[in-house]
Structure formats: C-alpha cells, structure tokens
From TrEMBL:
GO cellular component term of the entry, any: cytoplasm
Protein name: NTF2-related export protein
An annotated GO BP: nucleocytoplasmic transport
Transmembrane segments: none
C-alpha cells in the first residue's frame, strides 16, 4: 500500500511539474509583468549568482532582462517528503535547455522548489544558471 501511495505522489509531482513549468516559461517569455504571481511573497531567486528576494523584486529583475525564448530539453521532478516541509505539498523541479537572449543562445539549468498555496503552485526558491562547456 505504501508503495502505491509513493508512486501516486511521484506521478502527481510529475504532472504538476510539467504543468507548472510550461506556465512558468510562458510567463518569463511573454508575460513578465505577471511573474510575481508564480512566486511566494518571500520567494527567493538566484540568477547566475545574482540574489533577489521577494516576488515583486523577482518580477522587476526579470522585466529588466532582455526578451527571452526558452526551449526546455529536460525536466525532472520529485515530491519532497511532507515530514521535511511541515506537511506542505512541495516538489523539487529541475529543468535544462536553451534560452535565447538578444539573438544569442545559452544552455541553462534551473532548479525550483514549488509548494502548494491553496490550489496553485508557488515558487519558494529558484536557482538559474547558464551552463558552460567544461
């Protein structure tokens, strides 16, 4: 029975992560003026080493970046054990792909921690990093 419950939680996390990720990159690429709605009020962002606190500051940070087009090539998600997060439904989401900024394409990796707030998922913390060839 426990294995079935764990499998169901994993499936739910995958579905939620896919839906949230699609919405998130749509907002970043086309609706940055609404991006704060996807973060908790005290959400955190680290974008290529630049730390930003608070959903309105995160939205402003993204609004100041050049126009972007994201192409996701990889998505992974895992439910976080509820015992570790105060019984709050939480998912670790990791994406990788390419982002085009000012006609230049960069490989990137992004990791979100999202949590349920009512019937919506909100970003608790977010780390974005360009990837370089080693």
């Amino acid at each position: 029975m426990a294995a079935e419950t764990d499998n169901l939680k994993i499936l739910e996390a995958c579905t939620a992560a896919e839906n949230f990720t699609k919405l998130y990159y749509e907002f970043v690429d086309k609706m940055r003026h609404k991006l704060s709605k996807l973060y908790l009020e005290d959400g955190k962002l680290v974008w290529n080493g630049n730390a930003v606190d608070g959903n309105t500051n995160i939205q402003k940070f993204y609004e100041d970046l050049p126009t972007s087009i994201h192409s996701i090539t990889c998505l992974d998600s895992q439910p976080v054990r509820e015992e570790a997060v105060g019984q709050q439904s939480t998912i670790q989401v990791t994406t990788a792909g390419f982002v085009t900024l000012k006609d230049r394409k960069y490989p990137f990796n992004q990791s979100f921690l999202i949590t349920a707030k009512g019937d919506k998922w909100k970003v608790v913390s977010d780390v974005f990093r360009f990837q370089a060839v080693a």
